[in-house]
Structures are given as structure tokens and as C-alpha cells.
Amino acid sequence: MDVFESLTGEYEQIVFGHDPETGLRTIIAVHSTALGPALGGTRFYPFPSEGAALRDVLRLAKGMAYKNAAAGLDLGGGKAVIIGDARTDKTPDLLRAYGRVVNRLGGAYVTTADMGTNSADMVFIAETTPHVTGTPDASGDPSPNTAYGVWSGMRAVAERLWDEPSMKGRRVAVQGVGKVGGALARLLADEGAIVAVADIDAKAAGKLAAEIGADAIDAGVVLEAECDVLAPCAMGAIVNDATIPRFRCRAIAGAANNQLERPEHGEALRAAAILYAPDYVINAGGVISVASEIMGFDHEEARGRAAKIAATLHTVFDEAAASGVSPAQTADALAERRILAVKRTFDGPGGSQ
User: Which class would CATH give 143-284+309-337?
Assistant: First the structure.
């Protein structure tokens, strides 16, 4: 992948950081700061190549820009990846070194937890940069609010499909039972949904299933499970040319980022009569939670903002139906309108001020 080609026309910055002493290899992508500092998590993952890491961070950064815009937050979008296995490579010194890389951006990028990192890790990062959020003594773990927002969004999906904002009696297959997927499965079970769970850690899926009275199914077949709603809560790109013909669901609504492998797969879902809740709209509860530290609202308001994800989805579904395009395309347009409106206000009629 050509780095400068990746920057052209879209991304403000791509920063590569390396610290030989700790083994740190990181890439930070800032998509946009039009609405404010670029907020996005740090993903610690054993990418198969540096090119794969770059592709992922670019996709994630753009998704964060759109997520923050669609959620009504005065924040831009960015993301960071650290190449490595969080179980064996993550150390306090490496996280401090990473914090120094973040600090060199001067506040253009504000980091928080993501896959492979947690709120405790943010404490070490905060030792070398103030541009971090989601520490335990502040907003803390965002996953409960992410799960709550997804559950709220599912109720909008249910109202759209079955004229009732309830998941009671609906069959939901949850792919991934980490902090967000597990919390979502519990919320659904409490409401009376018929839940099936799957994870590459079959033992974890079995334990959760026993706890909440769900079925545990094999991770290799969960995407083909017959259900009302498929909830992807693991890695992205699960909607692709190979999987779309195999889906046996009425809707896809989950917490995973970048669920569409390519933008055109949103239209393919519409053609297959599968209602898609755009990922960065429905999973915005987590970023709303950590944004509370930057924007100055409390946990109760963060919960209330996550509940409004349902209303945002109704707007997306209504506009998509009226214009005859996919919800994914409509959500992109909604986010782009907000970003462009702010850019025009800042730049003025004569260009950048």
C-alpha cells in the first residue's frame, strides 16, 4: 500500500512510531479534525503485515470520523494500531513509549481503549501524554455503554421490521462474547430474546450461554445461523461477497467496527432484503462514554445519548427508504453533511482562514 496515495484527499496525517527498546511499532491515522480533536481507540493486534495494519488503521480512522459526526459529538476521527500480541508483547514501558508518540501530535489525536487495550492500559499511556481518555478514575470502561447503545439500536431495527421496539421473542445470534458482545447478550436475554452466542474461544461462549440460558454455537457457522438479527461483535469485514449469500437473518446489527468489507456491500445487503444498522451509528455508545471526559458531561448523560442511537437509526432508515439507497450510504451522507457544514463555516466563502 502506498502511504502518500492513502493520504490523498482524505486523511490529514499518518504517523509511524517505533521504539526499538520496547519493541513498539505503531501507526496513528488522523482522518479529520474538522469537528474537533480526532478521538479514537488504540488497537493492539498481531497483524500479519505492516500493510495489513495500515489498511486497518485507515479504515478505522475514517469510521471514527463518521461515528463521531453521526453521534453529534464535536470530535474528529482517528485511530491507532500497535502491531503485536497484547497477551505477550504489551508492557508498561511499551505503553509509555506509545504515549510519547501520541503526545507528538500535540492534541490532534486523543486515544482511548480498543481491542487489545483496556482502561488500565490508559493509565500508563497517560504518564507520557495528557491526550488520553477512558482511564479507570474518569469515564472508565466504555464497553457497557457500547452494549447499551447497540441494544437500543436493535430496538429501532425491531420497530422497523416488526412494528414493535422490542427484542422479546426474537432470535439473535451474537458473534463474539468479549466485553461488549457478552454485555449485549445479557441485555438481550434479560429482555426475553432467544439468544445464541459464538466465539473463537468456545469455552467462553459455553460459559456465557450457561449463565444466561442461551445456546452456544460454533464460531465457524454463526454467520449462517438462522435468526432474526445477526449481531457481529468481533472483527470487521464479515459482510463480503462470500458471506452475503449465506446469511439467514432479517437484519445485521452489532458492535463490530467496519462490518462491510467494501462500501458496495451495503447495497448488496439491501438487495438481499437484509436490514443493516450501520456499524458506526449503532456502536457509538462507547465513544460517547469516553467523549464525556473531553466534552464535559457525566455518565448519566452518556447513557441518555446512547439511548438516542435508536432515533438516529430511525432517521437513517427513513432517509434510506425515501431515497432508495442503502442505510450504509445514507449514514455516510449524514456524517459527511455534518463534517462539511463545519468545514464550510470554518473556511468561509473565500477558503481557509
Answer: alpha beta
